[in-house]
Design brief:
It is built from 17 helices and 2 strands. It is mainly alpha-helical and about 425 residues long. It has one domain. It is globular.
Length: about 425
Amino acid sequence: MHINYSFNYSVWILLIGVFTSGHVLVVDSLGLRLPLQVMMIGMLLAYIFQSIGKKINKSGLIVVYVAMSCLVGDLIMRQDVNDIMGYLLLVAFSFTLLVMKPQAILEFISKLNHLNWFFATCSIIAIILSINSVTQFNALFEKAPYYSTSFLSGVSWQSLLSHADTEQTLFGIMVPRISAHLQQASLIPAYFMLPLAISLAFAPQNKMFITVTILLFCILSTGGTVYVALASGILIYLIGSYIPRVMFLIMPFILLAISSSLLLYFFIDAYDVDALKGMSRSVGEAWEASSTDQSPISQRLGSGLVRLALMGFQTAGFIESFPLPANTALVKMTIGGNLLTNGLRGGLVGLVFTGIMYYSIFYAVSGCLKKCHRDEKSQRLGFSMIYALVFQSFIYNDFGFSTYYGYMMFIVILVLANAHLSGLTYHRERRI
């Protein structure tokens, strides 16, 4: 099969969707978020209208069921207009992806990696310049107003290169935790690593400089979730061929059950639905007060304790609300894995559909991984990284994965993986 690189209407709709939902800091700095989103919605509705009657790929339909369960939960319990609009957009984007051919989806991933390569390159340049430039260092922390409508509103032009969500001391040097144009470094696994992994897994050829640049940026971000994802992916790459496929399918659910039970046990006494954020932060502050080590590792441990507390509160909140969706405080103030996040959003129905979705992804990706030959190193690494990132989103990191972008990526994985298992191959005229 050959991918036609002429203008592809659906691909550009998806790219605008990713650009305006993920790289919001640069879009707000340019004052373009609202105009781009209005244009995107118009293009999306036109595409859906002209695609009515096309054959829908059933591989990713489970994602639509997840979206609908969360949408119903919001309509019944929370009535959050922004979230409702997000779920409706997810349904629209899901339809767009499900009527696209696998070749067109790969073209979307290719262009997305090119976009990410550009932002990664800008971020690396910004890091280098910030070493000797106080102006550039300070610009990393400048942010335009939310949905700004003017160019460079309240920020300098240097902030267009990249952003950082915080700073930390490393070997006596103040180092920014770079995040490109994302809100925080915790979003990098979803927005940078996952598209790259999909390309490595399904595209037979990848340009080395794009892969190396994006990976270098991910390492320089110093994000804990980034390092965990890289280490997990490499581990699966090394030992994945020795692990029975059934373990890839059931182990995530076993580990989540054990970890949720333990976190519930340790943090149930601190659970207070009216003070979730304050209680979780008090856990981290207690750690910092008791620790004389103020190294980045110690700081990340303190941040990790806050996250564990919020995950424990998430489990307690799900049990408290069961079987109905949760209230706004629980949904907005807790974090964790996507399974329990959607258990709060959509109640028992949302939990069940999300569990089926993840099982489907684990089944498809593990099947592709087992199908790889030992000499197909790029593909094996790609599938290993996909599994590690999806596993991460399932267990504890819903940042980026619980947005409509994240569910778009899940559809991409399901469609391409099932096509791959069916014997469909992809031949490309140009490398990404």
